[in-house]
Amino acid sequence: MNAQLLEMPSRHAAVDDSRLLLTIQIGGRLCGIPVPCVRDVLRAEAITRVPLAPAGVAGVLNLRGRIVTAVELRSRLGLPPAEKGAPRMSIIVEHDAELYSLVVDGVREVISISSERREEAPATLAETWRAHTTAVYQLDGDLLIELDPARLLAFGRGAEGSMS
After folding, report:
1. For the chain, what is the HEC assignment?
2. What is the reported pLDDT for 156?
3. Which positions fall inside the CheW-like domain (predicted)?
4. What average pLDDT values come out for the chain (164 residues) when binned by 10 residues?
5. Domain spanning 19-152 has what CATH number?
6. Closest CA to 54 of 68, 33, 34, 69
7. How far is CA 161 from the centre of its chain?
């Protein structure tokens, strides 16, 4: 990632002046998850399918003896499935005292981004994406889409409550 994207806050900057985001790849798109939401980052684990699970739920996995629901973000965001054998990563987040695995194509880096770059999701962003997006940021010709884990995990409940 370009060194210009990483903006280190000055000592005099307000605490709320910047946001730390874990950058991830989903279907060739650059996305971000707020760092305070992230508990762990793992290589994709073996996922056991669950009969009658809602669309977007890939199944469950065993994380150090704990059963964790795995959510396939490609499916949640209306993208086609990844190619068979393509590398995958799991972002572990906690929501309502439960752990969840957000399955993504790849993990990049943690960046600190100025709140001045924050914009609302544009109307041109597909509705499926807008429903799960907190904000977007323009980064040197690229668009970073900040996803809200609470919205991604709100199966059948709409976009209740934000984790960010």
Report:
1. CCHHHCCCCCCCCCHHHEEEEEEEEECCEEEEEEHHHEEEEEECCCCECCCCCCCCEEEEEEECCEEEEEEEHHHHCCCCCCCCCCCCEEEEEEECCEEEEEEECEEEEEEEEEHHHEECCCCCCCHHHHCCEEEEEEECCEEEEEECHHHHCCCCCCCCCCCC
2. 66
3. 18-158
4. 40 61 95 95 88 90 92 94 89 92 95 91 90 92 92 69 42
5. 2.40.50.180
6. 69
7. 16
| Strand 142-147, strand 133-139: pairing | antiparallel
> What pLDDT is recorded for position 3?
36
Q: How far apart are CA 85 and CA 5, in angstroms?
A: 31
Residue keyed to tokens 């880096």? 109
Please report, as a single letter, which amino acid is at residue 64. Answer: R
